[in-house]
Amino acid sequence: MIKNLDPKESWTLLQENSNAVLIDVRTAIEHSFVGHPPKAIHIPWKEFPSMQINDQFVAQVEAVVKEKNTPILLLCRSGQRSLAAAKKLEDYGYQFLINIAEGFEGALDDKKHRGNIDGWGFHDLPWIQS
Q: Does domain 2-100 fall into CATH 3.40.250.10?
């Protein structure tokens, strides 16, 4: 089963469970230049410019997360790609999947800007740029 948590709940889980793994499924450009939570492991679900699904995604996750019951939190820009990635991992037997529902940048506001309504950065959670 896939659980949806907001960024604050996700950060709390990461602090309380040292076995939990945070996977950033955004593109390399988003991960590096927009920023990412500390210790986030970058495994893209889709990659620019083609935006085709990464056919090595599951294998790349399996290389990092050996136990199928390890808590895996998945993060993207707004919570859509991470949910799709979580569903794929669920198909491969992963049991403790968490979609970070607001994503890193959050929803668009009235001016079509992200980060003003919700998202990891909006909640002032730790993040870094590469």
A: yes
